[in-house]
Each structure stands twice: as structure tokens, then as C-alpha cells.
Amino acid sequence: MAIREKIINAIIKGNASEVKSLVEVGLQLDLTPREIIDSALLPGIINIGEKFKQNRLLIPDVLMASRAIQAGFYTLEPVMKETAQEIGPKVVIGTVAGDLHDIGKQLLVMMLQGAGMKVIDLGIDVPAEVFVKAVQEHHPDIVGMSALLTITMPALRETVDALERENLRQSVKVIVGGSPVTWDYAMGIGADGYADSAYESIGLIQSLLR
Ligand code: B1M
User: Fold this and answer.
1) Segments making up each domain of the chain, as ranges
2) Which part of the chain is the B12-binding domain (predicted)?
3) Which residues are within 8 A (CB) of 182 and not within 5 positions of it... i.e. 6 or more apart?
4) What ipTM does the predicted assembly reach?
């Protein structure tokens, strides 16, 4: 069985230590982090997402699979950081209040770091006040927010409004993303940009700061 299938199977089984070892093997076989992400880690979580949607998996199974995919990301992180220079823009990132989804945001953090950006990751379930405080403290060029649930999308607007209230809105560009979010929604809440994927957000940030 090819390494990518082995990684996908280990994700489906929720076996974090096996995913970690297989990702290490992938790197030894000269696969790039991006090849491992695109051909194994993301297909693994998409497979889990489909089964979850069809009620063929329970939340604990999804949680185990998520931990397994995160183990894969953590294994790749140092390799991606090695080539990064951190001379690019400063980006504050978080998943909005009420939302615990971490994987897409984590991928975004890794991609941006890989592209040489300095990333301050506020984590998940981040209230608007915490984004505001981070902007006051770190003076970033970009604030990036992720929302994965329809019910947490309003928190994107609340954060944009909070930045406006604190007179910080003009000092940063705000970008948003996450599967239920669209470009139209982003424009409607007063964000500066929307990216469909972590990869796209690199180009988006570069074009917003040009
Ligand atoms: Co949740 N969940 N979940 N879940 N979960 C979804 C999102 C859902 C679509 C599943 C479904 O029903 N089909 C659904 C949301 C429906 C909706 O509201 N539209 C859902 C639900 C309902 C729930 C709960 C409410 C379930 C429950 O309790 N009954 C609950 C909510 C908890 C909470 O947040 N308060 C819940 C819980 C969980 C787990 C904890 C079990 C787990 C998360 C674990 C973790 O993250 N540590 C989980 C998971 C794993 C999923 C699915 C299966 C996978 C999400 C994921 O990681 N995708 C998901 C189904 C699915 O997506 N197919 C689902 C992979 C990731 C790489 O993609 O995050 O979309 P994504 O990121 C993409 C892009 O969106 C983009 O870049 C990434 C790719 O390059 N992107 C950005 C993301 N953020 C960006 C920001 C940007 C730019 C791009 O700029 C700033």
C-alpha cells in the first residue's frame, strides 16, 4: 500500500502515533510537506467529514481522527518553519467565539508561516475582545478569522465591529474564511478579503498589502 493510503487509513482509525510515524516516513521518501498535506492529510479529513455527514461516525470518532491529522500537521510544522524567514507581514489569526474547529486554522497558520509571515495564533473560541487586544498589543498587518459553523458566522461581523469601535479597523486588513463563509458574506460584514483555502490566503494577503 502506498504511503498516502496508509496515512489516510491511520487517520480513519484515529491513530495519531501511526500518522506521525507515517508522515516521518513520507518525509524520508522525499515527499514535500505540501504533497503530504494534499495527498494524505486533507483527503483523510474529507473522508471523515463525509462519514460524519452521513451519520456513519460519532463525534468521538471525528475527534480521534482530528487528533490524528493534527499529529500529522505537528510533524510537518518544523520542516515548514525551517525554510520560513519570518520577514513578511504580521498576521493575527483565530477561530471565532463559540467555534472549536481547529484544523483549517492550523493549516492556515502553517501555510502562512511557510510563506515567511509572522503568525500570532490566538487559538479557537476567540472572543472579539481578544482579537481587539491582540491588535493593540501586536500591531499586525492582517487579522484572519475562521468560522466553520453557520451559527458562529455572526461572530465574524461582531469582531469587525469591535475593531471599528476601538478605532483599529483602519490599521489592519481583515480576512475571513471557513467552509460556510463566502466572498459575498465577507464583503457584507465589512471584511477586506475572503479566501477559499489556506493556500489562497497567501496570495490574498500579498495582494491586500501591495
Ligand atoms: Co464539526 N461540523 N461540529 N467537528 N466538523 C462541521 C464543520 C460540519 C460541516 C459537519 C456536518 O454536519 N457536515 C458541521 C457544521 C454545519 C454548519 O454549521 N454549517 C459541524 C457541526 C454541526 C459540529 C457540531 C455542532 C457537532 C455537534 O456537536 N453536534 C460541533 C460544534 C463544536 C463547536 O465548534 N462549538 C462540531 C464538533 C466537531 C469536532 C470537535 C468533533 C471536530 C473538530 C476538531 C478540531 O478541529 N480539533 C469536527 C470536525 C473535524 C468537523 C469536520 C468533519 C471537518 C472540519 C475540518 O477540519 N475540515 C466538518 C465537516 C467537513 O468540513 N466536511 C465539521 C478540514 C479543514 C482543512 O477544512 O476547516 O474548512 P476547513 O478549512 C479550509 C477552508 O475552509 C479554509 O482553509 C482550509 C483549507 O485550506 N479556511 C480559511 C478555513 N479558515 C480560513 C480562514 C481564512 C482563509 C481560509 O482566512 C482567515
Assistant:
1) 3-83, 88-209
2) 88-210
3) 194
4) 0.98
For the chain, what is the mean pLDDT?
A: 93
Residue type, 86: E
Query: Does any ligand 1 atom lie closer than 6 A to the CB of residue 58?
Result: no
Angle formed at CA 162 by CA 108 and CA 105, multiple of 5 degrees: 10
pTM of the entire predicted model: 0.90
Separation of 101 CA from ligand 1 center, angstroms? 5
Closest CA to 67 of 115, 39, 106, 38: 106
Contact between residue 140 and residue 112 where contact means Cβ atoms under 8 Å apart: no
Mean pLDDT along residues 150-178: 98
Quick: pLDDT tens for 46-66: 898 889 889 998 989 998 999
Distance CA 88, CA 134 (A): 18
Q: Determine the CATH number of domain 88-209.
A: 3.40.50.280
Contact of 145 with 156, CB cutoff 8 Å: yes
For the structural domain made of 3-83, what CATH number should be given?
1.10.1240.10
Ramachandran angles phi, psi of 10, nearest 5°:
-65, -35
